[in-house]
């Protein structure tokens, strides 16, 4: 199998329609010489975190040699919450309107976890730790395979010329970057790094609007060794899709999504 085109996208954040639009643009079914690298942050902020994870997992199963999914910091934090003690519900308190939780559970399943039988109510009849325990247990029981798959995702993907990662790497280590980079840096590095490096680094994590002088959301290239592609899907309703062509070493960026959100 010869790969001629490599696509990258990142920071989907529970927005399934922009993801579907991006996958249609990439066209893995149509183009057997294309591969896709997803840079993480599948959950939080949007209404369809579970659907995004299910879709990405199915892609990895259908195209095991052509789809690579990496872990992002929001995915890591979600797993930390699931594995953490019942007294620590800081992640749950940060889940606005329980949007991420609701994507994993039906209204009735959530009501039962909250200690009642009213699917229309998010009120809890339980103390905080018990509620936290019940919600985590409901997700882990219903989605054990999906969560297990998420736990196994790598934090970095390296090719001969490129490094794909959610946030970044320890570039001060030069060619020894892989051994020198702690796990949390792969998913949480901030601020972004610019300039020359031994390989091209493709990352998400930091909104490109913070790098473009005009505040725009398109792919950001520093003119040297770094590309950043987090296009703030929760604001724009769209995803940046970066394509590298092996034949001539060129790159091209696209925007995928049904429409930009307003308001």
Automatic annotation (TrEMBL):
GO CC aspect terms: cytoplasm
One Pfam assignment: Metallophos
Calcineurin-like phosphoesterase domain residues: 5-205
UniProt xrefs under SUPFAM superfamilies: Metallo-dependent phosphatases
Superkingdom of origin: Bacteria
InterPro entries to which the protein is assigned, alphabetical: Ap4A_hydrolase, Calcineurin-like_PHP, Metallo-depent_PP-like
Biological processes, Gene Ontology terms: RNA decapping
Molecular function as annotated in GO: bis(5'-nucleosyl)-tetraphosphatase (symmetrical) activity; phosphatase activity
Protein name as catalogued: Serine/threonine protein phosphatase
Organism expressing this protein natively: Brevibacterium sediminis
